[in-house]
Amino acid sequence: MTEFLNTTINGLSSGAIYALGAIGLSLVYGILKLVNFAHGDFMTLGGYVAFAVNVSAGLPLIVAILAALVTVAVLGLALELAVWAPMRRKGAGVMQLLLLSIGLAFVLRNLILFQWSGSTRSLDVDQFQSWNPFGDVVITRIQVIVMVTAGVVLIAVALMLRTTLVGKSMRALSDSFDLAEVSGVNTRRIVLYTWVLAGSLAGLAGVLAAIYTTLTPNTGWFLLLSIFAAVVLGGIGNAYGALLGGIVLGLTQEWSTMFIRPTYKEAIGFLVLILVLLIRPQGIFGQARTL
Amino acid sequence: MDPLLAFGFWAFVLTFAGIYAIFVLGLQVEVGDTGLINFGHVAFMAIGAYTLGLGLTNGWPMWLAIPAAILAAAAAGLLLGIPTLRLRADYFAITTIAAGEILRITIQNEQGTTGGTQGLRGASGPWREFNNDVLDTFQGWGIDLDRRVPLLVIVWVTALLVGLLLVYLGRTPWRRALRAVRENEEAAAASGIPVLSYKLQSLALGSAIAGLAGVFYILFSTTLFPENFEPIFTFVGFAILILGGIGSYFGVVLGSIVISFIVSGTRFLDFPLDADKVAALRFVAIGLLIMGLMAFRPQGIFGKKEELHLDA
Questions:
Q1: A237-266 burial string, b = 16+ CB within 10 Å, else e?
Q2: Residues in chain A closer than 8 A to B287 (CB atoms)
Q3: How many angstroms separate the first and last alpha carbons of chain B?
């Protein structure tokens, strides 16, 4: 039982990070038909901006988180205006945009490597403080930070998607771009809002990943495939699905460590990804029409 | 730079380029001829390399272990293709990268068999003996060869032979059927072409060629590490493919030399920067190259625009 609770806490922590990354990736995929391989590097950038503010400049963690959010959101907007919108106007195909995003991922990751070198960094957070809520169940300070921050933001995003006009428009666009456009949705503006949302969530996910694990120029890239798995699990383009998919994936990976070696847990995530694509490509929460 | 050292250095760069050329020729069959975006291509190279490595360390002779390595890669291609080829292009791409990562993580974990992160050692003995024999023979004729020359020559002769084989296949109905599948699956199926079977054949052939690249990879690097087979290897392969031109075999040769030059050939240039920073800038350059090509010339240098199918 203790082991189950401990792995559940670990799974919720990593799942919350996957969920934050997956929502933006899924919306961008659904709305713009862009499989953004640079999304992981958006997260890494968020982590390093937080590192620069929190460690290099010595400012509080909350300032670092906000700086990361803003920077990555601005990057998302800038790339939309400079790269993705012109490419869509040219009529670029799905695979063309996908390969372009791989080039972009190379550029971002290696600029980060250039600026901050490859050494492992960590943020100014107490790494070792932990509590035993009952018995041998352990919860660390870091996990509390990750779960509380991600939890609050995820609930806020879910409410935003459900109740606000912008949120509803995003989901409508992801469902059917043309249909939303003829219904009078200002698609151009919603696309920009989507990038702001995707960018800031990726930035936050990157900071939390930097707190929860370690920060290297590969941090986001290594998370990206698991985040893809979360997106596919939730049904591509489905923002709630991505949220739940992230958490389900985090739990699955951590629970699997009760039965097999923990170093295999990433592979478990990828196996889930392949099985879902083969058996139920609309995702476990999606309906066939969202394909 | 000392000219002798310089020769060794360029032999290294060009051998690496030749291995990449073979690897990307396999990718060309899948991507260029058939329209299958396989992001897990490096996994088949890993299967070739590890099959040969494990065969040799377990005392198999070269003549048996090399075909086994190629066949194992081809069989793995079939095995992956049967369930996944029905998927849409973008899903297929993500599935292949995930499958490749599962393999890499497995190699990393199964230390007892593969050496894991400690590396698979001791497989280079038979090759070293063969190499020494070749060098001795040439010495007998009064020619002093650098010890890197035999592999360099064999790699490029193989790349040439693979290229010629593909050009020959290009004149057969087989490749015409592949291209028909790429151009329009429904029309191809309606004309009686068994689409799935052709895609499988393409994936098996491409994987076999990747396995062959893996054979040379282990002879080249002598020790195998799972991190040699990260997805980035495939992505650099895609950079080569895109630069040379999707659909062009000659483009693969040119692309692999240019990209290998950027990745390792620029090491002799003296930059007023740390080595790490220069390494990072090299990959920034490759990334910009991919972005620029995709934006302005997606067909690459030698590709034909009308043969390009990137709309999934």
A1: bbbbbbbbbbbbbbbbbbbbbeeeeeebbb
A2: 102-108, 110
A3: 48
How many independent structural domains does chain A possess? 1
Number of alpha carbons in the 13 Å side-chain half-sphere of residue B178: 26
Per the document, the length of chain A is 291
Nearest CA in chain A to B298: A96
Report the gap between the CA of A213 and the closest CA in chain B (Å).
Answer: 19
Q: Which residues in chain B have Cβ-Cβ distances shorter than 8 Å to A108?
A: 287
| CATH code of residue A49 | 1.10.3470
| Min Cα separation B311/chain A (Å) | 4
Return the higher-pLDDT residue of B123 and A118.
Answer: A118
A274 to B295: CB separation less than 8 angstroms, yes or no: no
Supply the pTM of this predicted model.
Answer: 0.90
B20-44: per-residue pLDDT in tens? 999 999 999 998 888 888 999 999 9
User: Tens digit of pLDDT for each residue in A252-288?
Assistant: 999 999 999 988 988 998 998 899 888 887 777 766 5
Which residue in the set B99, B101, B238 is minimally distant from A99, CB to CB? B238
* Domain extent for A214: 2-290
Among the partner-chain residues B98, B284, B290, the one whose CB lies closest to the CB of A273 is B98
What distance in Å separates the CA atoms of residue A102 and residue B109, rounded to the nearest whole number? 28
